[in-house]
Amino acid sequence: MSLLLPELPAGPLSRLRWALADGLTVTLRGLLHLRREPGTVISGLLFPVMMVLMFGYLFGGAMQVPGGGGYREFLIPGMFVMTMVFGMGESVAAVAADKNRGVTSRFRTMPMAPSAVLVGRCVTDMIHSVLGLAVLFGVGLLMGWQAHGTTAATLSAVGLLLLLRFALTWVGIYLGLLMKGPEGITVVQTLEFPVGFLTSAFVAPATMPGWLGALAEWNPLSSTVAATRELFQNPGWDGDSWIAQHATTMAVLWPLVLTVVFFPLAVNRYRHLTR
């Protein structure tokens, strides 16, 4: 008895509806997995909270903010960015788990839109990131942090954070498709810390050795940190380099560059996975 497969839709609109429906199905699958693993979700949400409490209360008294101002208001926008960075490791782990268990290969043999798996993963991670950002916003408010800018400026800052997360999601998806074992995932998650700390998130690059400060300034994360501080009207670091003076512009350009590079890499890697 032959297996009858459903006829693939013809026409651009029908294919678009097909892709959206399949992408929604994969997204719902990802959200169901999050609901069935509350321990993983809670630990992922609480880790940034622990970090901000540790730096805000244990180390904050010894920190000096360039130009004056409270260290907690200086810190919180940096921790928003770090939360977006930590989410990349979760993307790597989820994609690698599906690939190594054969789930991704099974999806590729099914009559579903080729984009559904990657888009569904991306949407799931973005929803999780919004939740994590909301939790950290609440913690920041309880610690005395405030967004002093206008509502439009605050929403723009949130948009920049989510734009960064969107770009890092595609970096994570690509790396997850490359991973062949837990060792690689551990390496990626470990590298999040030096990459995240080598920024202006916790201290001003001016306090670092010259060459290290230059690296911190040109770290794409630093642009988002500086831009969100400016939009929130929180204390920041006014560097005199070109990259520091154009932080908001670069907070848009850096994520776009990362997306342009890693989105096609992820799609190509997915298409050429061994079944």
Keywords:
275 residues, ABC2_TM, disordered N terminus, 0% strand, transport, mainly alpha, 11 helices
Q: What is the molecular shape?
A: elongated
The count of DSSP E runs of length 2 or more, i.e. the number of strands, is 0
Q: Indicate how many domains the architecture comprises.
A: 1
H and E order:
HHHHHHHHHHH
Tell me the structural class. mainly alpha
| Uncertain stretches | 1-5
Mean pLDDT: 85
Distance from N terminus to C terminus (CA atoms, Å) equals: 24 Å
β-strand amount: under 5%
> Helical stretch count?
11
Alpha carbon gyration radius: 20 Å
Helix percent reads over 70%
Main sheet characteristics: none
What does the model show?
With about 280 residues, the chain is an all-alpha fold. It has one domain (about 10-270). Helices cover about 75% and strands about 0% of the residues. It is built from eleven helices and no strands. The chain has helices spanning about 10-35, 40-60, 70-100, 105-110, 115-140, 150-180, 180-195, 210-220, 220-230, 240-245, 245-270. Helix 2 (about 40-60) packs parallel to helix 5 and helix 9 (about 220-230) crosses helix 11. About 40% of the residues are buried. InterPro entries: ABC2_TM, ABC2_TM_bact-type, ABC_2_transport, Nod_factor_ABC_transporter. Keywords: Antibiotic resistance, Cell membrane, Membrane, Transmembrane, Transmembrane helix, Transport. It holds the Pfam family ABC2_membrane. It is a multi-pass membrane protein. It is found in: Cell membrane; Membrane.
